Amino acid sequence: MIDGIELASSGLDAYANVQETIARNLANANTVGFKKNTISFTTILSEETSTLKTDYGVDYSHGSLKYTGNTFNMAIDGDGFFALEATNGMRYTRNGQFQLSSTNELITDTGAKVLGQGGPITIPKGGGELIVDKKGIISMNGKEVGRLMVTNFTDLTKLVPTGDSTFAAPEDLIDDSGEKKFNVAQGYLESSNVSVVTEMVDMITNMRSYEASNNVIKTFSELMERLIANQAT
Q1: Which residues are within 8 A (CB) of 148 and not within 5 positions of it... i.e. 6 or more apart?
Q2: Which residues make beta-bridge pairs with 106?
Q3: Which of 23, 42, 110, 143 shows a CA-CA span of 20 to 30 A to 204?
Q4: pLDDT, tens only, 127-182
């Protein structure tokens, strides 16, 4: 009976973690380039007890592209991530909501520098028509001023979320083999891949499971109280 209470209790903790994950996804349903957080559980059995192992992950499926018309908005149609130079190291993102810094560098809204194949991308002063072609070549008035660095990885499961729709990754995870399958879409942004409807359905299902586990604990507790009372008499 004690084992049953412990298992049901671990289930409550698991459902609470699921609820937190769903809440995080819903909070970022409108965040550009956000990738859905996932959570799963594995039951580990032993001679003494059984426990639940929690596995967190990220769903890297692509979000839909939405047209904005903003010159500095860019989206990756296909595989890969924009490379960034942040204050805490290299970061990678699918959020192409860029802007110009006071020194005319292409940056994110958090100040990270957008990297080209030759380093941070600087847009020449003086104005003119800025064009980004499908392969990420940036031109102004017909002259190339930079090439976006779009990075692929050999194993997406090893990327580490670092907030603001960015990820960290060791250099040996970068995939330089083969042809990169992507197009850059200027004037577009990639939406979050979170489905609000799916998350809400999962939340309701999870809450019902939480309530069921809680009822199991109450039932076990009542049975134990009766057994103790019977033994006392």
Answers
A1: 74, 82, 114, 115, 116, 117, 121, 132, 136, 137, 138, 184
A2: 100
A3: 42
A4: 789 999 999 999 999 899 999 999 999 999 999 999 999 999 999 999 987 667 89
Amino acid at 69: G
Rounded to two decimals, the pTM is: 0.83
> Which single residue is written with the structure tokens 């604990």?
217
Range 6-11, long-range pairs (CB < 8 A, 24+ positions):
6/49, 7/50, 8/213, 8/214, 8/216, 8/217, 8/220, 9/213, 9/217, 10/51, 10/52, 11/52, 11/209, 11/213
Cβ neighbours, 10 Å, residue 99: 14
Count the Cβ atoms, other than its own, within 10 Å of residue 93.
26
Alpha-carbon gap, residue 10 to 16, rounded angstroms? 10
Closest CA to 115 of 150, 145, 142: 150
Sorting pLDDT into bands at 50, 70 and 90, what band is 42? confident
Question: What are residue 190's phi and psi, to 5 degrees?
Answer: -90, 125
